[in-house]
């Protein structure tokens, strides 16, 4: 049964988060960020599946989606374009890191402006450099969008000194994992591949949806695998698939990249 001890807080309400909340103190929680178009949450089934997986793997009670979906409907408006953030914490309780005997899940809903630069990036593509910050391995958390994002904060901080739109983030074995806030996939000889995310990284909603449309191979990926590809993309649920214009000194034709992906998707849809 869904958890009955569930508190939903909307950012536009006069509510506060407790200073004892485990999400604030320990990063004990998870989140998802969705694109809202004309009052509809895009890829909602995938965002819901992400929330369910995070709750299960982190030992949270089952979420009450009837209540959550009703609250979402009340707070997203009919504006042409918005962003919905759903942040879930384990609430208060427990001694130190120890779990509370009864979990009162807290859910924070925020409706935000859509990033103004995403449309331009989708058209012109992104220039990538390699981040000096590498991701540590933790298989228990691999794939999950937990509240512990300090690695990403450091990655964004390092980007301030780099002349690029985004970065390739590697692990300590120099395997490509992702971009700063997006997945990576590439096309080579009409085959699609993406980094294996069994030790670190996040398997994003857009990538999940792409896997339902195309055969996608998850494998160990080195930087040279990307620079030798026919096309490379970064992707997330807000901006969709954005072609990579360059990786360090390697340049790609973004028009060709767009055409290649469109052709693969069209061919698969015919099957």
TrEMBL record:
Cofactor(s) recorded in Swiss-Prot or TrEMBL: pyridoxal 5'-phosphate
Source domain of life: Bacteria
Catalysis performed (reactions): 4-amino-4-deoxychorismate = 4-aminobenzoate + pyruvate + H(+)
A Pfam family recorded for this sequence: Aminotran_4
Keyword terms: Folate biosynthesis, Lyase, Pyridoxal phosphate
Catalytic activity, EC: 4.1.3.38
Database matches in PANTHER family: AMINO-ACID AMINOTRANSFERASE (PTHR42743), AMINODEOXYCHORISMATE LYASE (PTHR42743:SF2)
Assembly and oligomerization: Homodimer.
Protein's name according to its UniProt entry: Aminodeoxychorismate lyase
Organism annotation: Pseudoalteromonas arctica
Native organism taxonomy: Bacteria, Pseudomonadati, Pseudomonadota, Gammaproteobacteria, Alteromonadales
């Amino acid at each position: 049964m869904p958890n009955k001890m569930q508190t939903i807080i909307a950012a536009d309400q006069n509510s506060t988060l407790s200073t004892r909340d485990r999400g604030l103190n320990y990063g004990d929680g998870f989140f998802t960020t969705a694109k809202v178009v004309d009052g509809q949450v895009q890829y909602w089934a995938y965002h819901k599946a992400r929330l369910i997986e995070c709750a299960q793997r982190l030992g949270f009670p089952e979420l009450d989606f009837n209540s959550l979906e009703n609250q979402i409907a009340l707070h997203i408006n009919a504006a042409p374009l918005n962003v919905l953030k759903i942040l879930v914490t384990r609430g208060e309780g427990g001694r130190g890191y120890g779990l509370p005997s009864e979990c009162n899940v807290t859910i924070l809903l925020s409706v935000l402006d859509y990033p103004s630069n995403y449309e331009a990036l989708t058209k012109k593509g992104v220039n990538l450099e390699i981040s000096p910050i590498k991701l540590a391995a933790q298989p228990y958390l691999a794939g999950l969008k937990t509240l512990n994002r300090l690695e990403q904060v450091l990655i964004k901080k390092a980007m301030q000194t780099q002349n690029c739109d985004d970065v390739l983030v590697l692990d300590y074995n120099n395997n490509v994992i992702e971009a700063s806030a997006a997945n990576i996939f590439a096309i080579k000889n009409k085959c699609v591949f993406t980094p294996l995310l069994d030790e670190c990284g996040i398997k994003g909603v857009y990538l999940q949806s792409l896997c339902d449309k195309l055969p996608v191979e998850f494998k160990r990926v080195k930087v040279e695998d990307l620079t030798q590809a026919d096309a490379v993309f970064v992707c997330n649920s807000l901006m969709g698939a954005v072609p990579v214009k360059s990786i360090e000194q390697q340049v790609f034709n973004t028009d060709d990249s767009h055409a290649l992906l469109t052709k693969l998707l069209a061919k698969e849809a015919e099957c």
